[in-house]
Amino acid sequence: MLTIGIDARLIDGKGGGTKVYTELLVSNLLKIDRENFYYLYAYKHHPNLSKIAEGKDNVKIHSAGNKFIWRTPMIYNTILKDRLHVFHFPAYNVAPAIIKPEKPKIVVTFHGLDAIFFKKRERPLIWKMNYKISAKVSDKIISVSNKLKEELIKVYNLKENKIATIYYGIPKPNIDTSKLPIIKEKYGIDDHDIILCVDGAEKRKNITTLIKSIRLIKNMSKLNFKLIITRSKYYKEIINALNLEEDIKLYEWIPHDELNFLYYLSKIIVYPSLYEGVGFPVIEAIQHGKPVLISGNTAMAELIEEPFLIVQEPLNEQEWASRIITLLEDKSMYSKMESYVRKQSERFSIEKMVKAHLELYKELAED
């Protein structure tokens, strides 16, 4: 039996794909793995984590200090007391170590290196520092794509065998259709076709190009649609300037359970980002069986290989407008793309993801 520690703070915090990944990983490890024991580390207030662990006899939650402790070698004093074989930081943030203990073996998941290639809106230097510490202190790195693995090797001069690629896994969505009227009313959804774009928080997300493409679509067609963008407070000015207030709806944080309803109600998903570690919303779209348009020359092309769904000139609003119009007007093309996406879903099952993590933990503990 292994004793496995996981930094589970994100489960009761804010976050996009990294939060969802952590919650899915922890909840499904506890569901699937009955052989090993888990220590989950969190802050004092952790109602969501408590709910996940409720009724499980192979888990213990540790309230482990404040943010300061997690950013210093002091956190290892807490971890060492539990005699762990493996400790997993699921979202960067490996604490620095003056003298790193032989055990537990440290695993970290990298979700991207966007702060290296693009300037983040908030705390860019802290992100870069977190990346470097996490890459150097860890014994094993989980990369969410092969492209990201190549970037890690190049940027931090790492050996290839230190990094394992494990794609995100997401359960098949279970939609309670009785709640759809409430969601439709809350988000102003009526008889329009819905285009969904999840997460516009950073400039690299290329939302401005997408917004300009909506103006082109309005000029080129008579389509009845609305675009919903999440984490999008930065774009009110350009939308007002282009007179698109009635066509584009901006929201900040949307609870993930409500976001699942928006995926279900959407006709197509658009993810125009110029850089992603892999693109969590793309896998969510795949699991919902929705055609998803992505930018070319990114790690997202490992998920979607159908040429029509890949925009090779992502800064060209005409390209996005053309693909969107075709999907909304051409029923045959839409059906073809929908069928393609549904066939991809088995690649990203939650069972595959959890099994790959367990195998990595065991391999590392035995090393």
Characterise the protein shown here:
This protein has 2 domains: 3-169 and 349-366, Rossmann fold (3-Layer(aba) Sandwich), CATH 3.40.50; 177-347, Rossmann fold (3-Layer(aba) Sandwich), CATH 3.40.50.2000. It has helices spanning 17-32, 47-53, 67-70, 74-80, 114-117, 124-137, 146-156, 180-186, 207-220, 236-241, 256-265, 280-287, 317-329, 331-344, 350-366, and strands spanning 3-7, 37-42, 59-63, 86-89, 105-110, 140-143, 163-165, 193-197, 225-230, 248-251, 268-271, 292-295, 310-311. Strand 8, helix 9 and strand 9 (225-230) form a beta-alpha-beta unit. The longest helix has 17 residues, at 350-366. The radius of gyration is 21 Å and the shape is globular. Helix 1 (17-32) crosses helix 15 (350-366), helix 9 (207-220) packs across helix 13 (317-329) and helix 13 packs across helix 14 (331-344). The chain is built from 15 helices and 13 strands. 41% of the residues lie in helices and 16% in strands. The chain is α/β, with parallel strands linked by helices and 367 residues long.
